[in-house]
Design a protein that fits this description.
mainly beta, 78 residues, 6 strands, 1 helix, single chain, SH3 type barrels, globular
């Protein structure tokens, strides 16, 4: 799971995080000095989630098509 967060950080991708109680939050992951904590930048502000409370991470991939205008989002569950 931490590997996917690192990929999302490098590629500046949004992620959807589901915790063990079923709640989800969307945001951009950021590097943290504490490797046991997931730092997420959301529209409501920064959020810190312990990795042991993370059940699932989904990376949101932006794909550009030369056949269509604009960007389209595809979801990849990880």
């Amino acid at each position: 799971m931490k590997k996917e967060v690192e990929i999302a950080i490098r590629r500046k991708q949004q992620i959807v995080v589901r915790n063990t109680s079923g709640q989800t939050v969307t945001g951009y992951p950021e590097r943290s000095a504490d490797s046991s904590i997931l730092t997420l930048r959301t529209v409501q502000g920064n959020l810190w989630i312990p990795f042991d409370e993370v059940e699932q991470i989904t990376r949101l991939l932006s794909i550009r098509s030369h056949h269509m205008n604009g960007m389209h989002l595809c979801i990849a569950d990880l």
